[in-house]
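Request:
Um, any thoughts?
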Amino acid sequence: MAFSPGDHVLVEAESTDRPGRRGVVEEVVRGDPHPRYRIRWDDGHESIYTPAAGAMTLAAPAARST
């Protein structure tokens, strides 16, 4: 599945010891067939992420606390 800037995503952890991560796609660095995305994670960090098959899915925007 291809993602676009502004998409909210959920990424599964590679280990069962850690929870998955949520973030927002900021930029498509490289498209298919081997995509790379710049993602701003909910903890404020950014990274370039290359998803494994099925590891990244669309997610609803995180609820904001008031």
